[in-house]
Amino acid sequence: MWKPICLAISLAAVSAALCRAEDKPSQARQIKHRVTGLFSPEREKDLREVVSKLQDVKLVGIDFKYAEATFEYDPDKSLNRPKPEEIPQRFNDMLRPLSNHTFGIEPLFTTPKEKLQRIEIPVAGLDCKACCLAAYEIIYKIEGVEQATASFKDGLITALIVPDKTNRAALEEALKNRGVTLKEEVK
Q1: Which phi-psi region, left, alpha or beta, contains residue 105 (left: φ > 0; alpha: ψ -120 to 50)?
Q2: How far apart are CA 69 and CA 58, in angstroms?
Q3: Which pTM does this prediction carry?
Q4: Could you give all domains of the chain from N- to C-terminal order, each with its CATH number?
Q5: Structure confidence at residue 176 as a pLDDT band (50, 70, 90)
Q6: Which secondary-structure segment (H or E) carries 59?
Q7: What is the largest CA-CA distance in the chain?
């Protein structure tokens, strides 16, 4: 006789707790993500345009040196109550289609920034944003590259690399294999 009453009280308590959780106001917070496709300062306008299409998401700031951006949003509301480790992937799943897959989201650096090495590779023939994106993607997808930029104005591709995982020769070889013309460095 006591069991049905206890069960009814327990179910009522759980139901009330769930209702209170559902009624809880959303809490937007600032979250920093690494942004792929952010290969030049000129891409800020493009990123802002894409983010403006996301409901309840605001782009707060951009750090081009490390291709990181700070966004303000409520993950529970915008990403359907993700686990903390799911946030970057779910945000990526929202952003990529809206940008025609030219922007993406990844977790922040795993290697301390002071242990990264900066590589600069002078190139020829990058004369538009699409060419820069293509060269950027060649470099960025190499294991050990944490950040890359490509500038047709400067004729330069840069990369922050983990020296234990890749090197300048590997980056240059990847570019040459895809038809990118390297300039001779002036020494």
Answers
A1: beta
A2: 11
A3: 0.74
A4: 29-106 (3.30.70.100), 113-181 (3.30.70.100)
A5: very high
A6: strand 58-63
A7: 91
